[in-house]
Design brief:
The complex is a heterodimer of chains A (206) and B (215). Chain A has helices spanning 44-64, 81-86, 94-123, 132-142, 148-162, 172-188, 193-205; strands at 7-9, 15-18, 27-29, 36-39, 66-71, 76-80, 167-170. With 206 residues, chain A is of the alpha+beta class. In chain A, strands 6-5-7 form a three-stranded antiparallel sheet. A two-stranded antiparallel sheet of chain A has the order 1-2. A two-stranded antiparallel ribbon of chain A has the order 3-4. In chain A, strand 5 (66-71) and strand 6 (76-80) form a beta hairpin. In chain A, helix 1 (44-64) runs antiparallel to helix 6 (172-188). With 215 residues, chain B is an alpha+beta fold. Chain B has a three-stranded antiparallel sheet with strand order 5-4-6. In chain B, strands 2-3 form a two-stranded antiparallel ribbon. At the A-B interface, strand 1, strand 2, strand 3, strand 6 and helix 2 of A face strand 1, strand 3, helix 3, helix 4 and helix 5 of B. The complex binds zinc ion (ZN) (2 copies). One zinc ion binds next to loops of chain A.
Chain lengths: 206, 215
């Protein structure tokens, strides 16, 4: 069988499907494993770029402002995500510092930058920047390793653990972080591999 | 079906003499190494997949054992040092009456990792030979394992946050223990094990025994 642009494979189970233009708002699911292969939502690209840009701005607040403050009369302690990551930077624990920095700061930020780089020009009807395909693939690869939302649950557990030791207050970064987690979840529902790659293809040809 | 896609009698790209891209869904002639659209590497079936699954699975298990034996959290209060292992931390939370949070931590640090070891081993064993299991159910199991694995990191982050907050005061100091490193490594290794698994293999063997049943 000759490969053609109308022929796509299911990324999960390899079943072949023919696509003759997915119509408005419809979704094409794999006949065998039910994975969503294509979603026709032309506005999805713009939405992803807007959400990614918003998250990126919020991320700066998250990294440098305190997200938790600890008070018990005698002492006052506050921690930013940056300080949390640096808490381990001695001796054997250094690998942990690197891991926390990567999972909570570096990888989520990289993923956002990748999305904006690859899809940003498309939302202004411009041809894509060089390396757009690579950054888009990278964004997909990074997905499981960006763990901002898991860190949030960690914050909640830490609150309970310290509850009777001191009074805790949420800092501004906590709320920014909560917003990012929500935005990221929204952004991921907009994704369909076929549709995004087709959009990138179309923009490259212009 | 709610799309305009056309079913080609559950023919796979491999059977049609094509190789499908798992990054962008484009198909290319068999033997193509890199995808013409996205530049990702193409492999009709990942031949080293199973070896990698078992290798990561094994190192993950090797890291998980010390993660449970050594202390996760070292708390120093005036003249007194307290160690807490993963399970010890959960028990302590329960003693404080925080049953909900104790449940979350127990689920993330014990149930998920143990369940993952069992599920990955089960999947990797089953797809080697022709099997009569429903592929849809196996895929669901795989998707759950792949999605839930990262949530085990909760306890590592809790230790990090506690250590950062309660570091510079005189009443108490909290430091991460060796188990925090082991546990983080174990989570990363099992995530890699789950990712190395080629989900397309679930369907390859089913067809040799029974006719493919709809998922
Ligand atoms: Zn499929
Ligand atoms: Zn591709």
């Amino acid at each position: 069988m000759a490969p053609s642009e109308d022929l796509v494979c299911c990324p999960v189970c390899d079943a072949l499907h023919e696509i003759h233009g997915v119509t408005d708002g419809k979704r094409l699911r794999c006949v065998r494993c039910n994975t969503v292969i294509a979603v026709d939502r032309p506005e999805a690209i713009v939405r992803i770029v807007v959400l990614a840009s918003t998250s990126l701005v919020l991320m700066f607040i998250v990294i440098f402002f305190p997200f938790l403050e600890l008070r018990n009369g005698v002492f006052d302690s506050r921690a930013s995500v940056f300080e949390t990551a640096m808490a381990f930077n001695r001796g054997v624990m250094a690998p942990l510092a690197i891991a926390v920095t990567l999972f909570v700061i570096v990888l989520p930020v990289s993923r956002l930058v990748c999305f904006i780089w690859a899809l940003g020009p498309l939302s202004f009807d411009r041809p894509p920047l060089p390396g757009a395909a690579f950054t888009l693939r990278l964004a997909e690869t990074l997905r499981p390793w960006a763990m901002a939302e898991i860190f949030m649950i960690g914050v909640a557990v830490a609150l309970v653990k310290l509850g009777d030791l001191a009074t805790l207050a949420m800092g501004p970064a906590f709320w920014s972080f909560a917003a990012i987690v929500f935005i990221t979840a929204l952004q991921d529902t907009q994704l369909s591999k076929y549709s995004i790659w087709t959009a990138l293809d179309t923009a490259s040809r212009r | 079906m709610d799309g305009t896609g056309h079913r080609i009698a559950a023919l796979t790209a491999r059977e049609a003499g094509l190789v499908g891209c798992q990054h962008c869904t484009r198909v290319s002639p068999m033997g193509t190494r890199t995808c013409t659209r996205c530049g990702g590497s193409l492999e009709s079936r990942d031949r080293t997949s199973m070896q990698r699954v078992w290798a990561w699975w094994l190192v993950g298990l090797m890291a998980y054992i010390p993660a449970n034996l050594y202390p996760m959290l070292l708390t120093r209060t005036v003249g007194q040092v307290q160690d807490a292992t993963i399970v010890g931390g959960v028990i302590e939370l329960a003693h404080h009456g925080a049953y909900g949070v104790a449940g979350i931590v127990f689920f993330a640090s014990v149930i998920i990792p143990v369940g993952k070891f069992i599920a990955i081993a089960y999947l990797a064993t089953i797809v080697r030979r022709p099997h009569g299991h429903k592929p849809g159910q196996l895929l669901h199991l795989y998707e759950v394992v792949e999605w839930i694995g990262r949530w085990s990191m909760i306890d590592v982050f809790v230790v990090a946050i506690l250590a950062a907050l309660v570091q510079f005061n005189l009443l108490a100091t909290i430091n991460p223990g060796v188990a925090a490193v082991c546990f983080a490594l174990s989570v990363v290794f099992t995530m890699l094990a789950a990712m190395s698994f080629d989900s397309r293999r679930i369907w390859d063997q089913i067809r040799q025994t029974s006719d493919e049943s709809p998922a």
